[in-house]
Fold these 3 entries.
Entry 1:
Amino acid sequence: MFRNNYDNDSVTFSPQGRIFQVEYAAEAVKQGSVVVGITSKKHVVLVALKRNAEELSSYQKKIFAIDEHAGIAIAGLTSDARVLSNFMKQQCLGHRLTYGRDLPVRTLVDMIGAKAQQNTQQYGKRPYGVGLLIAGVDEQGPHLFEFQPSGMTEEMVAFAIGARSQMARTYLEKNLELFADCSREELIAHGLKALKESLVQDRELTIENTSVGVTGFSKADDGSTKVEQFKVFDGQEVNGWIESVADDKAAAEGESMEVDG
Amino acid sequence: MDHRPQAWGRPRDDIYGAYDGSYLQTTGPKQNTQAPVVTGTSVVALKFKDGVVIAADNLASYGSLARFTDVKRLRVFLDTSVVGFGGDVSDMQYLDRHLNELAIDESYETDPSAPDAGALNAANLHKYLQKLMYKRRNDFDPLWNQILVAGLDSGSKPFLASVDLRGTAFSSPSLASGFGAALAQPIMRKYAATEEDAAKLSREDAVKVVQECMKVLYYRDARSMDKYSIAVVTKEGVELKEDEQLEKQSWAFAERIRGYGTQTV
């Protein structure tokens, strides 16, 4: 029987120059349900499809607030995401305490990147089995980052990870030019449409299985811009958005959408 | 053999000589800074319409001796803020190196195409210094300084605040450390008692007021000098002049002073 001798730990290269443990971890991300993130000039949106282990159980949360200005969507092992999420929360809080400001998003992402990479380089450790989309705003505007178990992080305009996420990415690529000038609501609609692309046959977005996270800049009463606190929307709160992208509605609105484009 | 148990296992005095007690530690327990040694005197600062003026003289005293006459006590942070140090000069130098390190770390984090956005501003820096000073006082190893931080806050409005060796922090439209708190503050308050007053002050007027304060301090503070540094922080950046000379001094008032010195009356 063929047996792979080079996948026992994450510190051994295969003769082909691969590290199998890291690749297996990346595979765990593909098992998780799909999450989508999109940025515009003013906002960044996370949209996720929640799964329930069985009919009788509740749906597993997919989007988490990290700090006032940032949140994450996860695909993969939820328990590993919990570790990263707690770490990010602590870093954000510590930064706020010492400097009195929001931790810049890129700095935050670099921290978990470095943390995750160390696990691929030390004997006895394993990579995190989770991929993240990190959404946040700072002085430089809204940001969306992708995080992989290898420790790779990259800034994205729009991205999707998780099971069947390729379909969502295809939608995002097709509509890429539209995103920059989208309003908050339009951006959420695009996110939900991308999410729908990834659904298996006969499945639909419902208020139970859909989760939305938003942060961005909004106009204050005095005309100045202020940060809209990262908030996760679940259940009844997402009803309106789901209805706005429902199939029958999309067909009726198809023409008007074309005009927008 | 010496049969007394007290002598067992010890080198015999008749062979090795008496034990040399000077090898024992003669100092007490470890002591942290109990008093500043080489010191800088006042720092004065005043907010105006679109920025802050800050000044300090170039003297470092060793007790009452004017020991170093070219010590720059205003330090620029990231070209956007100015930190003025009063108190111990060696602690100032430590803080200066520390802040340079922080500035380098910070410049790695910020986008080079938009260097202004996202960098630590004066308010962030002041908060950080306050935590640092308070941490050191809790370690019973304080950094013996009073620090003024001048710059702009996150809303690009003028920012001026102070932190001392205990980590006590506060802000005001005008601030002065050391002797200046008694001598310069009343002068500055005549022009900017409130934030509203400071917001009406022009840059030229603010600079003039601060120069006047430096002159009064030189007249009255025996640990001061007539060579000083002055910096103006605005949105456009920091203008720092480190080799200024007090002008138009008039010591005529000194004639009338009675009560100390060598006079007998």
Entry 2:
Amino acid sequence: MTKKNQLTKESGLSRRSFLKGVGLTSAGLAVTSGGEIFAEASGDASVKIISPGGATITLEVNGKKHQLKVEPRETLVEVLRDRLHLTGTKIGCDRGACGACTVIVDGKNVTSCLMLAIDAEGKSIETIEGLEKEGELHPVQKSFIEYDALQCGFCTPGMIMSSKNLLDHNPSPNLADVKHAVRGNLCRCGTYPKVFQAVLAASKQNKGE
Amino acid sequence: MRWIGKDVPRKEGKDKVTGASRYIDDITFPDMLYGVTVRSETSRGILQRTVFEEGIPWEEFTQVTCKDIPGNNYVALIETDQPYLADGKINHPLEAVLLLAHPDKYLLQEARRKVSLEVDPLPPVYDIEESLNQKEIVWGKDNVFKEYLLEKGDIDQVWEKADHIIEGEYKTGAQEQLYIETNGIVAVANPEEGVTVWGSLQCPYYVHKALMALFDLPADKIRVIQTTTGGGFGGKEEYPSMIAGHAALLAWKSGKPVKLIYDRLEDLAATTKRHPSLTRHKMALSSEGKILGMEIDFVLDGGAYATLSSVVLSRGTIHAAGPYLCENVRVRARVVATNTPPHGAFRGFGAPQSIFALERHLDKAALQLNLSKEELRRRNFIQEGQLTATGQVINEKVSLADLMTKAMEKSDFQKKKEQFHSENKKNKYIKRGIGLSSFFHGAGFTGSGEAYLESMLGMEATKEGKIRILSASTEIGQGTNTIFSQIAAEALGIEYDLIEISVPDTALVPNSGPTVASRTCMIVGKLVESAAIQVKEILRQSGFLASTYSSSEFSKACQSYLDKFSQLRVFSKYKQPTNIKWDDQTYRGDAYGAYAWAVYVAEIKIDLRTYETTVEDFVALQEVGKVIHPTLAAGQIEGGVAQGIGYGLYEKVVWDKGQMINNQMTNYIMPTSADIGKIRVFFEEAPYAHGPAGAKGIGELPLDGVAPAISSAIENAIGLDIPEIPVTPETLHEYWVSRKVNS
């Protein structure tokens, strides 16, 4: 009996080729299995043709611009971690289910394992490394320490980014808002009750209460 | 006390909130290769051939099979049955057969898919019943890894005296630890320097021992370093020895550093889980509700290899009769082999399984005797001076009755019960219920385990005038580094910030034992305390430290001592208190140095349109000795309750041919922020003489009592006694529909 090794094979279509398809077809491109990419007759002049060798893009991370050559298949989290050495953003599942890789892109929470790096070009990316300003921790970070809203710490960067983004958009959240904001950030240590406390306290601090 | 009992900031807090902490996948080396594991995918059989398909430049890959192993092809732990790489025989569908390494991680994944294994299948065994029936013999002579018989009194003569004899059967499913950081190791290995591994792990010296056997190298040629670890819960107790071996074998053969990080799918499918269980109870009671006898048949599914199953079974066996006085007990306990990946350590370690069965059975008995669930337990709580099932005299005040009273008050139990009863009649779909559990958990290794371990801890002064703790006990989120610093600062009478913790690196720290069994605070914390006392004594006797001193005077004393003698380092070694006696042969004696006691109450809501159960309020009362850090301790309980809610309601491992098939975080469901209602935690403190500042163990306790309290509440809400967990909506629906058919 011969069996193929299928542990990482998801219905014959790898996650990355799927991602690649989604990411690029939305821009009017089709993807072949060989990795070559052809522009369809979309008539969109902004469509950029990427050769198999990769593309040079500029990523704006924590207010700083980085020019780098990436392959189309590389996800944002891979580029942040492997190329820019911003390893604070974590990979927990690599499939958008755990939230450990949460970063803020143009003011929205994004699971950076589900965004291709080339799709992040021209957008403003915030990561955990960008929160501390001139040696001063962000109020959410301070509050996480004060309320011990972390244990093993692996979900913490993502949890903090979701919390920070909540406060950016809603300075006076209630408990339900906080629960909602971090519902995509899984914490196996079960720090949720302390996260709720910490975020609510940080919102009060923000307002000088 | 200045530091004990205070909410000091977590030692590594700032690094964790800024993303500065370095976890295993954050570490890279120049010229590093990535590694992957090729697995069998057949449950049981004989490996005939490995086929490398075309289209991959195979010559670029480092390939390792069992033939490349320099030493012994087994993961050294208790038995020697589990191979690092299959040598012909396949015993479960995730059995590692071949290792590959390459600098391009994308090509590596592609290559793994292009390896086919030809296996002649043998008939497998998939569950406890099949294994017990010896449908096939898949391990040893009879499929039984380990059997214990625990006996007290004479159970056989009790049945004729009983007013009630109540029988029941209970099942618990596998549970995945689901640490958010998957398993991973980076290895550097060559014949000249030996083997060094960095990894996400709980027990550096377990890995050390395993690598010594695998490479047939002496202790000083193996070095194991723990990196910041993103959760363990038992899941990184024994399994990292496997990954460390694999990464090191690839590094050894390639001559390059190798990083082997499990993808989430692989981690879920291949690594250990909580043992599934099947428990049968037969209980004799008097008409007054006294338990006269318990006969318990407790069976765990161990998976394909022995791993830690015998020890898990031991804890489950000892906790099977619970914190109740019963003069006649027989527990027959077995852990059996199946062709699934081995089950292993998970917070609670066998106790959650046997306690679930007992607590559900007590509820059943209470209903039959027409007693309240509370009252039946109160009539049977063990008291100080009485004997447990193993014949251990309880030498401490047992606070269960007090805890029960407080739990009833805090949860407003009676009022809620009546309120729900009347509301449920009016509401067709929404049904609420309240339920409870009472239980205990022994801290530290079972029986003579701590005596055999002879744990050792070091403490040294640094040239900055600080004190550094040298310990192999790992920080995995539970707060080891913080509480050790508190205990040391308290005993030394200095600032908390003057305490440093060494990286757990086997080249630098002595073996303070594994980070398991709720032993870190009580056992190793005590070593911290005694080492601190020695340091203080040395400084005093050498004349550098006055009888009273400030922290800065203490620092200066350390520096002066180092100037003169160049080193100040002490070691303290664990000695079992002399009153603890255990007989491994008869399985009788003092099973644990101390117990934590608890009463938990769950309040739940069931929606009979979706069959979904939600925990709306949870009250957790426990007595754990002196609480070293109230916030950390509460965090341990809250986290344990959250995992317990998952165990009881959501977390179902779906098996197909010995393989977990819902191995994703989207279809293996753990609690999210949206699932966690109120968790109210209360501590009673009764200092334990042999713990640091009176502390006992705490970490595993909460896992024992949550699921039974929830199931008890479900029974209260809809009158359905569901004898298995998890009670997923599908399970609840099944029982609900069949009840309607039956009635």
Entry 3:
Amino acid sequence: MTRFWLIKFARTVLTLWFVVTFAFVVLRTSGDPVVALLGADAMPDEIEHFRELWGLDQPLFVQYLSYIGQMATGQFGVSLRDSRPVMDIILERLPATVQLGLAAFALAALVGIPAGILAALRRGGWLDRAIMALAVFGFALPNFFLGILLILLFSLTWQILPSSGSGTFRHLIMPAVTLATFTAGTLARFTRSAMLEVLERPYMRAAAAKGVPAWKRVLLHALPNAAIPIVTVIGLNLGQLVAGAIVVETVFAWPGIGRLLVIAVSQRDLAVVQGLVLVIAVTMVLANLMVDLLYGVLDPRIREAAR
Amino acid sequence: MKSMQRPGLPVLFAGAILFASVLVALVGNVFTPHAVTDQALLSRLQPPAFMGGQAEFPLGTDRIGRDMVTRLVAGLQMSLSVALMGTLIGAVFGTLVGFAAAHFRGLVEEALMMLVDFQASLPFILIALTLLAFFGNSMVLFVILMGMFGWETYARLARGVVLSARAQPYAKAVEALGAGPGRLYGLHILPNIASALIVQVTLTFPQIILLETSLSFLGLGIQPPNISLGQILGDGRDYLSTAWWISVWPGLLIFLITLSMSILGDALRDRLDPMLKTRTS
């Protein structure tokens, strides 16, 4: 058991180290890091202070170590636009993204998993085919196009939902639906195949023969055993949600970090880009670690295998 | 035999759509009377012909009176060719990395697989945005970026298959006959994993289309004067209330292409990957 956790933690630390190294290499190969992070028109004494602070007069290896130190303590430099510390800007924008992400995720799970179970129970029937067709549509539909279509219908034609901004529940509906669609489609597909595999197992027939009612067989016997692939897909889809948020927030002018990232990239506000990428990457790596640990909780065999 | 079965309706539909898009991309601009840059300032934001617009502009015009059909053909050309190049670069590079990892084993394998894990742990759009921000956008960098998408999947796939193939008698026999690694991998192992790679290509291609159009939609991908479907869609955002067609046509095209490619990919996977079939059926 301890070994299982240790391996997971070691891999996580390794990936984090890769992420920071990637950022360092990009920063150092793209030009002068001072110009990159402070801007071309920075004051000479500011530049001098920065060079000392980051040890840019030191050998590259020392610089690398001090860079890791800076990043680990969240010192990402200041934004070119308003000279505020990058960390403050990110923290200000983060709650909106978390809110949107959680809403979308909950929606996707509430729609996708029951739809997948239903499709598996009605295998080959019209309901199964309809759900699977919808699922394919769900993940082939580009999220920016879905967002535009929703705005066209609900904001411009019927005028029942606001097309942009945040603040009320009504503002949340369209961005959350747009962001959830892809994940719901993927979840429905994987839940269906995971359930199909489980439903054919002998213990399901045994439960039926024992006279366990159908709803109990599905929810208490089949679903827990289908949980592992479903959790895997949820873990893999975290990245999709983050990637989707970058686009969806821009479509709906949602004031989160995805929109901030797009603005920072287009204005080449490099300190903000670097800070955001590191924050998002660390969050994702930690989320993946939690998914991995969840496997161990869900399936004792995985813990055993790692021993 | 299941493989003799005729393809179903969705697959035929998907095939027809893809064939039509490639055809339009290849020869479409021969039939459009306008050039991409032609502006008709008196015919700005004209609705499609079937909605009372001018017959000269069947799908309407944009904010400076450029013909939508002409721009869609150009955007389609760009989006398809960038996605095609990206897919090929990623497939070749990833497969070579996988072969190298399986061939050298040891430290090389560990290092390469660590890179694979790193790329798989982050959403690719994040890596793409970082590189675009720091190195600036150019057509060359953008195509390379598209090629960097998905190589890790090919690498994992190729490595896994090579490792299991090398344990099989035919690989041992070829080696015993004195074939070098190039001959072994190129002529004997590659044909054996070709079907798995082709399935992966059909899965990666629509993802790259989505990546390119997303970035171009955000204004961070294909830059004017070049045209991409995502870029037209993004431009149309400011005119949603007056000229919905600017956004809807390119969006519909992207959707149809990714949908068709997914349907074909699924069908191909069921056919070419017998292992998967026995597992799910």
